[in-house]
Amino acid sequence: MNNVKNLALWVIIALLLVALFNLFQSPQSQGPSRQVAYSDFLNAVQEGRVTDVTIQGDTIRGHFNDGSGVEFRTIAPPNDNGMVERLREGNVRINVAPVEDNVPSLFGILISWFPMLLLIGVWIFFMRQMQGGGGKAMGFGKSKARLLTEKAGRVTFEDVAGIDEAKDELHEIVEFLKAPQKFQRLGGRIPKGVLLVGPPGTGKTLLARAIAGEANVPFFSISGSDFVEMFVGVGASRVRDMFEQGKKNAPCLIFIDEIDAVGRHRGAGLGGGNDEREQTLNQLLVEMDGFEANEGVIIIAATNRPDVLDPALLRPGRFDRQVVVPNPDVSGREKILSVHMRKVPIGPDVNARVIARATPGFSGADLANLVNEAALLAARRNKRVVGMAEFEDAKDKVMMGAERRSIAMSEDEKRLTAYHEGGHAIVAMHCPASDPIHKATIIPRGRALGMVMRLPERDRLSVSREKLEADLAVAMGGRLAEEIIFGHDKVTSGASSDIQMATKLAKNMVTQWGMSDKLGPLNYGEGDNEPFLGYAVTQSRGISEATANVIDQEVRRIVETAYDRARTILTENHDQLERVAQALLEYETLSGDELKAIAAGEQIKPRRSDDMGDGGSATVSEPRPPRASVPTAGGDDGLRPSPQPGA
């Protein structure tokens, strides 16, 4: 319907433009003519060169007898009474035309009033737009909250797995909306707001969609970035309009995704002057729990940065509950995998439990991506079902990056990479607290030339000093293997990520985890260990220069201790390093069990080069971001920092 109206408007505008063009072109429609002086006209009459004239008031038009056919035009003086006699003496044919009245036509009136009518029309258009809904061009102050009513693609709690505690908290709200008497008879009241907190990809938005699918009440959805725009007062107006819509449809649910975009600390703005975001937040605070009662409207918000939210927004009465949505454990991962595996044909050899145990630290979004990658690999290999081999290859691709076999490495570079990765593997095998090796490869993956992937045997919530020191020693193993085999002057920059990770890990041990004997259990950190929680606008270091020097000394001591430990292990097990490096040069990729057998001097079964997975024509070119519970080691190979104690 709107398209038809727009088309009709453009047709009318086009017709008006054509009419205006014709109007301004009308003087030229009477043919060519030239203006002559009145004296020249009289001379031409006297000489007999004028054939005919048309007198219309004081205007005289006529033609000369020169055969050109061009009309001339002149103006006669008002008191020349003898002009007609002179024309008759010159044998000129005389025509008289009536003088036109100066009364304007209807079209002329429209043309003269056209600018004013155009301004009035534009004013009416803007007024109607401002009075219309949020979808109108001028509906700045209208809320952009969308009412979810579609039945297609409906999500329920059955589609949410692995976060049972969060489901129970939100399921209670749905029950309250369906049967409020059950809770009100005991004096309970419905929570006014629920804040979903957790790292990215854990299912916060999916939970909100499940609530929309379960609750038989109106469900409004809006993003935190939809409030504030370039016009002053728009944010507060949209908040008011959103709650007005909610009150009209009460009881109802309003979901605000990424609320940190509008709910940041007040007074932390860097721009100065009037802060539109603060006005929006103030209006949100008033609407959630202000002077007027706001019964029947429940706010559900999601964020992965709770530390930047204003304290007034988090207090009971506004957000009564804060539901933490963490990464799933092994049981949760198995349930999530089962949900996503319903959508793809699975082979009989696929075991979701095995895949769940091999993917610690994966979020729900990571697991969904894993299943999708496995399905793409199976399709690329022209298989009818997705087998365990595809899941293994997809897991390696997601965790270590895509294989890049097209990179042309020289024999010297390949040999150096093999000893570098062999150094990581040997140190890891001789450190009891280290995680078991999952796979080692010298095939470039992502941005790394080689990799040693370690996986914990179980989900880890805290990390001991022994485990952290083992991770430091493993990180130093690659550089030390280069130095022992090729000499001090032949070490390369391949250990850059190892050194970076070791430095960061040692600094965290000193400044945040209280593992320095000199400094004791004191915290000198700046809270930058949780990348998904954000940073404060201003942070002061709060330590003296002398303390900073001690911190640097302790960090150096911890790293050097790990360096010496790795040197001792590689020196005492030089023969194992040689065997592992030669096996990597021959097979390129080895599993953890094969590495143990080779280090012990055993022979492994001959196998095809693609037994460890070919990676296909993968498209992922960057290493995975750090996972708190999946520390790995390798030379410039996406080495991930170890988890924090108590995380």
UniProtKB/TrEMBL annotation:
Compartments where found: Cell membrane; Membrane
State the UniProt keywords alphabetically.
Answer: ATP-binding, Cell cycle, Cell division, Cell membrane, Hydrolase, Membrane, Metal-binding, Metalloprotease, Nucleotide-binding, Protease, Transmembrane, Transmembrane helix, Zinc
List GO terms (cellular component aspect).
plasma membrane
Q: What are the TM regions of this chain, as residue ranges?
A: 7-24, 106-126
Q: What is its EC number?
A: 3.4.24.-
Membrane topology designation: Multi-pass membrane protein
Active-site annotation: 421
Which residues are in the AAA+ ATPase domain?
190-329
* Annotated positions binding ATP: 198-205
Does Zinc count among this protein's keywords?
yes
Q: How is the cofactor bound?
A: Binds 1 zinc ion per subunit.
Residues that bind Zn(2+): 420, 424, 498
Q: Superkingdom of the source?
A: Bacteria
Q: Which GO terms label this protein's molecular function in UniProt?
A: ATP binding; ATP hydrolysis activity; ATP-dependent peptidase activity; metalloendopeptidase activity; zinc ion binding
Question: Tell me, what's a Pfam family for it?
Answer: Peptidase_M41
User: What InterPro entries does the annotation carry?
Assistant: AAA+_ATPase (IPR003593), AAA_lid_3 (IPR041569), ATPase_AAA_core (IPR003959), ATPase_AAA_CS (IPR003960), FtsH (IPR005936), P-loop_NTPase (IPR027417), Pept_M41_FtsH_extracell (IPR011546), Peptidase_M41 (IPR000642)
Q: List required co-factors.
A: Zn(2+)
Sorted alphabetically, the Gene Ontology BP terms of this entry are: cell division; protein catabolic process; proteolysis
Annotated segments matching region Disordered: 599-647
> Gene3D superfamilies from the entry?
1.10.8.60, 3.30.720.210, P-loop containing nucleotide triphosphate hydrolases, Peptidase M41
Q: What does this protein do?
A: Acts as a processive, ATP-dependent zinc metallopeptidase for both cytoplasmic and membrane proteins. Plays a role in the quality control of integral membrane proteins.
Q: Which family does it belong to?
A: In the central section; belongs to the AAA ATPase family. Belongs to the AAA ATPase family.
What is the protein name for this chain? ATP-dependent zinc metalloprotease FtsH
